[in-house]
Amino acid sequence: MSIKDNINKLRMEIPEGVELLAVSKTKPIEDLEEAYQSGIRDFGENKVQELLNKVEHFHNDVRWHLIGQLQSNKVKYLVDKVYLIHSLSSIKLLNEIERVFGKANKVAKTLIQINIGREESKSGILEEELSEIIDAVEKCHNVLVKGIMVIIPKGDDESNREYFKKTKRIFEYLKKRDYKNINMEILSMGMTQDFKIAIEEGSTLVRVGQGVFGKRNYNVGGEK
């Protein structure tokens, strides 16, 4: 199937009110252009350098999402380039985003990444660390938290659903509370293999790469 066919199929599967983020990491501009011509305006990248290269050579009305792990020394490259940072995963990173975006008199929109499966191989804060990072966000002037992002452990449909349910409970708990810099609007969970279950459990944004572009070419792009 072509990229256009894939997108049309996804649009039939993804209900109104759930955003499709096309994960374009490692994909060439030609593939992004085909997705763009099919109406996609939100693209997700893992690495800062690849995102910057694509920003420079692609349409100005695209909203770029940084969905990969973000190192503190790369934050400075994202000012005026990124629409949403999905991977706010530590107070150290939060403080650097606040410093860099404050210096530029800009506001960074972010999602708190929770390590819902408590996997050592994945970044993200643990559930018991939430209150600490929320307190730190509330002291910021240049960072807004718009929701939560999770990457769940690999598993079967039943275990996937449990992780999504657990994340949704956290999302709903925070949504009911009154914060200055936190507004729970986006629940970013679900990828190509499990987005249907994620949507059933309340996801408002699904990150789909292979389902849009086909299998990845891992030889494209580099890190800055």
Order of helices and strands: HEHEHEEHEHEHEHEH
Low-confidence parts: 218-224
In the residues, how many domains can be counted? 1
Q: Strand share of the residues? A: 15-25%
Tell me the major beta sheet.
8 strands, parallel
Structural class: alpha/beta
Mean pLDDT: 94
CATH architecture, by name, is Alpha-Beta Barrel
Q: What count of helical segments does DSSP give? A: 8
CATH class: Alpha Beta
Query: How far do the termini sit from each other?
Result: 33 Å
Order of strands in the sheet with most strands: 7-6-5-4-3-2-1-8
Overall shape:
globular
Helicity range: 25-40%
The CATH superfamily is known as Alanine racemase
Q: Remind me, CATH topology?
A: TIM Barrel
Radius of gyration: 17 Å
Query: How many β-strand runs?
Result: 8
What does this structure look like?
The protein has 224 residues and is of the alpha/beta class. It contains 8 helices and 8 strands. It has an 8-stranded parallel sheet.
